[in-house]
Amino acid sequence: MDGMSCTLSPLVYAELYRLLAADKQRYDDIEERLSEVGYAPAWLSTAADAYDEYWAMQLELAGAEGVGHISVGSSEHALLATWILAGLRNTGDDNTLSSALRANVYRRAISEVPDLKMPLPSVLNPVIYGWTLGKVVSLSSTDVPVEPVALASMPDDDSLVAAYLGLVNHVLALEGMAEPWPEMMQTSTYWRGYGIAEALKPEAGDGGRALLELLAESRPLLSQPVFSQLNNHFSRFGARRNALSHVTDDARRPERFVEVVEDTHGWEHLRVTLRGLTQFVCQEVSRLLYEEDPPPALRNDPWRYLVREMPTEWWA
Q1: CA atoms within 13 A on the CB side of 214
Q2: How many C-beta atoms lie closer than 10 Å to residue 250's C-beta?
Q3: Radius of gyration of the chain (CA)
Q4: Which distant-in-sequence residues (6+ apart) come within 8 Å of 61 by Cβ?
Q5: What pairs with residue 133 in β-bridges?
Q6: pLDDT band at 144 (very low <50, low <70, confident <90, very high)
Q7: Could you give the strand order of the β-sheet that contains 149-151, starting from the edge strand earlier in sequence?
Q8: What is the pLDDT of residue 3?
């Protein structure tokens, strides 16, 4: 579906690159990362200015009613941003940067777009998980405690990609359903989540061990409160999946089928499941981008091509 592409407003990129340009703590890491594609840190301010100029021009043309359609179309914009972010995956958790990005975009959007309706359109709703850029794609017009995310880049495994997109679409479908949901609608995320973990870590042998490895990898990328929540949730995930699969009471399983069904209903449980699985996919994306050569689309001065997609008087 087109909504699952990570198309974002130029305002998002302007604010992201300004935050990175001002990040003195990570200056050396940013400098090293940018040098791989031939840029210096000063490029961040240059890019931010270009995105700001394009945002202002498009906003003047589209107005408040069309702000949800103001975006930079090429997927390479999001890919370049995520590739840069992936170079910072050894610098700690990304929550501060993600929160600042969302706050800055929100502040500018409501300031610069008169009569902007809430919630913000998805192109103005970025998130950073696992040092991977994403776009929140919720279809709900009300606040629900989950954030289905379209990612700027995905792993190469087609089955894994399809499984993740299926999970996101499942959550989007639940947004349109009144609670309480049918039991299998709420518990099916255990089978899908277990399968995603196995696909991310096939060498682990099974989903339970895969989840433990994924949790271990996530620890340096998350704040302590978020890690503790995910660790508590996913350390029980495999056992609960088995209880749901086998139904019959078994003394070897810590929870019975009926207990799992009762304990796992509703948005709060689904929110943690989706947050964790998105984190695991995102940290794999950033790992691949960090360890491998830049993708073909980012070689040979990618900005020279990307800036041509934002024609303004200044950049003409």
Answers
A1: 34
A2: 12
A3: 20
A4: none
A5: 128
A6: low
A7: 126-129, 132-136, 149-151
A8: 59
Q: Which two tokens stand for residue 41?
A: 């840190």
> What is the identity of the amino acid at 1?
M
CA distances from 182 to 12, 145, 179, 188 (A): 38, 19, 8, 10
CA distances from 207 to 191, 211, 234 (A): 10, 6, 11
Three-class SS of the chain: CHHHCCCCCHHHHHHHHHHHHCCCCCHHHHHHHHHCCCCCCHHHHHHHHHHHHHHHHHHHHHCHHHHHHCCCCCHHHHHHHHHHHHCCCCCCCCHHHHHHHHHHHHHHHHHHCCCCCCCCCHHHCEEEECCEEEEECCCCCCCCCCCCEEECCCCCCHHHHHHHHHHHHHHHHHHCCCCCCCHHHHHHHHHHHHHHHHHHCHHHCCHHHHHHHHHHHHHHHCCHHHHHHHHHHHCCHHHHHHHHHHCCCCCCCCCCHHHHHHHCCCHHHHHHHHHHHHHHHHHHHHHHHHHCCCCHHHCCCHHHHHHHHCCCCCCC
Q: Which residues contact 277 (CB under 8 A, 6 or more apart)?
A: 164, 167, 193, 196, 197
Collect all residues with Cβ–Cβ distance below 8 Å to 182 and sequence separation of at least 6.
Answer: none
**Most confident of the following: 21-30, 183-192, 235-244:** 21-30
| The pair of three-digit structure tokens given for residue 168, joined into one six-digit string | 């996101």
10 close to 310: Cβ distance less than 8 angstroms: yes
The model's confidence at residue 140, banded by pLDDT at 50, 70 and 90, is: low
